[in-house]
Amino acid sequence: MVQDLSQFSMLDLFRLEADTQTAVLSAGVLAIEELEHSPAAIESMMRAAHSLKGAARIIGLEPAVRVAHAMEEVFVAAGKGAFTVRPEHADVLLAGSDFLGSIARADDALIPDGPWTERANQLVARLAAVLAAPASSPASSPASPAASPPAAFESADRVVRVSADSLTRLVGLAGESLIESRQLRPFIDGLLSLRSTQVKLCNTIAALDERLDRSDREAAASQVAMLATLRDQADTVLSGLTRHCEEFEGFAGRNEDLSSRLHHEVLTSRMRPLADGIRGFPRMVRDVSRSLGKQVRLDVRGDQTGVDRDILEKLEAPLSHLIRNALDHGIEPPDRREAAGKPPTGTILLEARHRAGMLQITITDDGAGIDIGHIRARALALGLVAHQVADRLAEAELLEFLFLPGFSTKQVVTEISGRGVGLDVVQTMVKAVGGSVRVTTQSGRQAVFTLQLPITMSVIRALLVDIGGEPYAFPLTRIDQILSCSQADIHTLEGRQYVDRDGVSIGLVLAAQVLDLELPPAPAVGESLPVVVISDRGQKFGMIVSGFLGERDLDVRPLDPRLGKVPDISSASLLENGNPVLIVDVDDLVRSIDGLLTGRHLTRVEFARMAERARRRKRVLVVDDSITVRELERHLLQSRGFDVDVAVDGMDGWNAIRGGQYDLVVSDVDMPRLDGIGLVSLIKADPVRRGIPIVIVSYKDREEDRLRGLEAGANRYLTKTSFHDETFLHTIIDLIGEPTG
Questions:
Q1: What is the CATH number of the domain that holds 127?
Q2: Domain end: 225, 250, 272, which one?
Q3: Which of 75, 148, 215, 457 has the fewest beta carbons under 10 Å from its own?
Q4: Which residues is 271 bridged to in the sheet?
Q5: How many domains does the chain have?
Q6: Whether residues 299 and 448 fall in one domain
């Protein structure tokens, strides 16, 4: 591509050149290692090495000049048929490509006779030895000349350099332009309604004129003349109104079409092919599989699928983690694969496509699959589920444990996996861009991870629903399904309502109650209930709404930062008629529902008088992402006489604190979304709530951890061993006294 790079230094230009050309070199070498010897591949690598040599010479980077020249010599000889590049040469050629990429990014690259010079000498000697080795028959390796080169040729389209912030603002303005143009439609509808009224007026005048008999006309000629004039004027107004309606409707249509095309082009300018974010994946698969003693091939499909650049930047880490996970956990060693009747070389398929207005990426490996029994045993060992519950969990519910923080099925810590972070990092990153991830498996055959993502972060596809007479938007990527439940399908158990779908029980709650709105009237007998099913980290709930309003593409607008984190809401948008619509935060909703079902009051409690406060039982909020610890603390405090509410992580706890009144907060440290230190900092920074005592209870017992918690503002720091004696309860009573004191 021809770029406007006038603001770049020569070294910056070389770095850009190196990024592009080393990607061509690596792709070409990996293709050769897979026995794909097309002349186009050799030629593209020769050009890449030649370009790097020239660029390095311009800035005086002599070590890079020498290495690029040596690589070019290898490819020139291969192109002439005097030498055949074979798979065993891949390590040396990849080392040369790595060298050129590394020296381009190094701050000390231009130091004469520095460490780069010695490394260059070693590489040049190795490349010379490769070229001097006995040549094999060129006829044994080349593929069809029609084979595609490993890297795409550069486009001739001219582009200009635009800052990311400027492009983001441009997207926002284009979105606002589209929304404004759509607001012309209600105005047109108003004009058409006015025209309809005018037609009725003209018809009324005509009917009145016909009813006047001739004697009346002769007797009251002046009134007849006035009526005729009125009729003519009404007809003239109708004719003009009709003409203006047609002209304005055409203008509005053209304006909306222009705004739509502008919005589409601006969004397209933010798109980059998925290939730009996964260039290093084939090399990673090669290197990691070798270190594990495995044979693995990466198959990429849909690499030209467009992805928003902001999403693409965040995708590399989760996709890399999933591929490493497949390499380490999924694909078996060659001997085990052959014993199972599989080819010795495993395959990881990465496939991307646009589907239903969203980006779908699947990563499939043909390995041993995921051991469901092992997950059940691991969940029991970690105390995440009781024995009697674990045996009843379905496969889909057990697979959700993989995404819990700290959950790993591997006992041994390695550089590849089993590092104690599990797949929760993948889910966290995917949800940060408004997406979702799910996993399926077939024992002995495959494991499939599916990422559902918005195509762009500036516009989302959403389902609009009516809750309490107001529209709310659910991002489609976060909806499991929508249901229309008959009242006969709804069952009640232990005071909770649920509905069965595909063998899964889905708990039902009123959306208005979760959002703390006025509850709707009871449905009529036989009336079906519209339900939106959402889930997060293994929890699945159905929200009963007042109605479905259809799907929309919404221009996402952030809330005013002065509002802080609004419970259950992530952002806002405007509808075609200019009315605002709130976009829900599904993660927050799930935690609010969980809190509602476990007894936490979501409605705001007004501050009571001090005398009333003294008479009531004291109220404690327990914040912990471990259900075992959470319930243990709740039991200890309730058995002593305290009122206890629970929250499932720091953000859920902060929402509870802002919506309720508590005498004390007990919090864990390590939690998703917002950790305990962050929660303490928020409470102590709030002028209304800074006086609430806080007790941190953590497994971490190091002195530096204790000091970190106390410095953040916690009143006490306990380890979870305090549950085994009276230390925990004594600490609570020391801070706030007896439950009713």
A1: 1.20.120.160
A2: 272
A3: 215
A4: 308
A5: 5
A6: yes
Do 504 and 497 form a contact (C-beta atoms < 8 A)?
no
Residues 567 and 656 in one domain: no
Of 5, 91, 22, 6, the closest CA to residue 56 belongs to 22
Give a yes or no: residue 111 inside a domain. yes
Question: Residue for token digits 């509850």?
Answer: 519
For the chain (741 residues), the mean pLDDT of every run of 10, in chain order, is 50 78 84 70 84 83 89 84 76 88 81 81 87 54 37 46 70 73 75 82 78 56 73 83 83 82 78 86 88 91 87 86 89 93 94 85 93 87 77 81 72 50 75 83 92 80 90 90 85 74 82 84 79 80 90 81 82 80 88 72 34 65 84 87 88 85 90 87 87 88 81 87 78 88 62
* Structure tokens, 1: 């591509």
Stretch (H or E) spanning 496: strand 496-501
Sign of CA dihedral 244, 249, 251, 255: positive
> Quick one: DSSP state of residue 340?
T
**pLDDT for position 566:** 84
Examine residue 741 and state whether it is found in any structural domain, yes or no: no
CATH code of the domain covering residue 555: 2.40.50.180
Query: Is-contact 659 606, C-beta < 8 A?
Result: no
Strand arrangement, sheet containing 346-355: 296-301, 346-355, 358-365, 446-454, 436-442
Query: 160: which strand partners?
Result: 4
Amino acid letter, 153: F
- Shared domain for 312 and 448, answered yes or no, is yes
Enter the tokens of residue 424.
């929760």
Rounded to whole angstroms, the Cα distance separating 71 from 89 reads: 11
Residue that is written with structure tokens 């078996």 in the block: 332
Question: Residue 169 has which token pair?
Answer: 């603002």
- Spell out a b/e string for 177-212, using b for 16 or more CB atoms within 10 Å of the CB, else e: bbbebbbbeeeeeebeeebeebeeebeebeeeeeee
B/e letters for 248-287, b = 16+ CB within 10 Å, e = fewer, are ebeebeebbeebbebbeebbeebbebbbebbbebbbebbe
Instruction: Give the C-alpha separation, 680 to 445, whole Å.
Output: 47
Distance CA 532, CA 465 (A): 9
As a whole number of angstroms, the longest Cα–Cα distance in the chain is 124
DSSP string, 387-437: HHHHTT--HHHHHGGGGSTT--S--S--SSS-SS-TTHHHHHHHHHTT-EE
**What was the pLDDT predicted at 56?**
84
Query: Which two three-digit tokens encode residue 24?
Result: 């061509």
Q: Could you tell me the residue range of the domain that residue 155 belongs to? A: 2-160
Single residue among 454, 474, 506 that ends a domain in this structure: 454
